[in-house]
Amino acid sequence: MTTTPEAPSAASLMTTLPGHFYTDPEIFRQEQERVFESLWFCAVRASDLGKPGAFRTVQIGRESVLVTRSRSGELRAFLNICRHRGARLCTQESGEVRRALQCPYHAWTYDLDGKLIAAPNLVKMPDVDRTAYGLVKVALREWLGYAWVCLADEPPSFEETVIGAAVERLGDTASIEHYGTERLALGKRVTYDVRANWKLIVENFMECYHCATIHPELTEVLPEFADGFAAQYYVGHGASFGEEVSGFTVDGSAGFDRLPEVAEDQDRRYYAITIKPTVFINLVPDHVILHRMFPLSEDRTVVECDWLYAPEVVESGVDLAKSVELFHRVNEQDFEACERTQPAMASRAYRGGGVLVPTEHHIGLFHEWLAGLLG
Known about the structure:
It is a single chain. The protein is about 25% helix and about 25% strand. The chain has nine helices and 18 strands. It has helices at about 25-35, 160-170, 175, 200-205, 210-215, 215-220, 310-315, 320-340, 365-375, and strands at about 15, 40-45, 55-60, 65-70, 75-80, 95, 100, 110, 115-120, 140-145, 145-150, 185-195, 240, 270-275, 280-285, 285-295, 300-310, 355. The strands form five sheets. It has a six-stranded antiparallel β-sheet with strand order 12-17-16-15-14-13, with helices on both faces. A hairpin with a 2-residue loop joins strand 10 and strand 11 (about 145-150). The longest helix is centred in the last third of the chain and has 21 residues, at about 320-340. The radius of gyration is 22 Å and the shape is globular.
């Protein structure tokens, strides 16, 4: 009989989550309920919904959520479910309606604030409360130019759990506000379909022990990453550009003008922030890169990555390729590593988990956080 090998103990090594945390459908179901459906989730870039009637649907945990812009210009979020018989209200990922949202099944119709305004024979049912039978509302906050939604009946403090994550990483709110992310324009968006558990992607982003191995372009621009210490390992620290590097580009050539409010001590530095559970923010002097993860199953995660620049840069039509290509390569290298790791999570060799070396010990806090939510 083959048994699971026991690793020798070593004071410098910390254990990880067991392998089944990355493969068990029941654990993923618990994560859907207690993590994605209970915490603030970054759903959509606000500028994607440019005018009233524009909408986008996103999968959050087990729910389809509809985000739209109302006639008054404000963003609204609802469960994407008709109150009549439960049909999916909007079946497209994105689109635009003129004045109302209509169910394709029985034509129950809702205004952009979610109120029921029409249905076949509705006038013959005067006892139907059109507000009570409106769409189910979802809490929504705007920050950094994105709509963040929360499915919980009583959402946790946005200031503590979302903005607080940036403060915990950078030391204060001003450090991220300097980049004016809400005023930037979308220069490029790439969607990656990653065949790996969402936690493997988070863990990979949090550490740089792998950087010297798989990120040659990144370590050329940020030489200190070759030593294995991620920027997130230290509060307030930003990795310095190499002496011969002019910009955060694939070949180290010059990028664009520094964003106007970025402080002098933030120039020529890269900052990475993880906002649990599913957002990564990357700050460099001339642009911001933001990842949103959409976990779809225990072994599949869609990642939507936005490159954001000063509006005048995007409007000028200047070539963004060298700027985008650096982190696009980093993404592809990282996601390939996560996909290579995912099958091993089911191996008997990983039944008891793996280990974290000292430069990865901060990932243990992520594991503790998750274990606390899952009980």
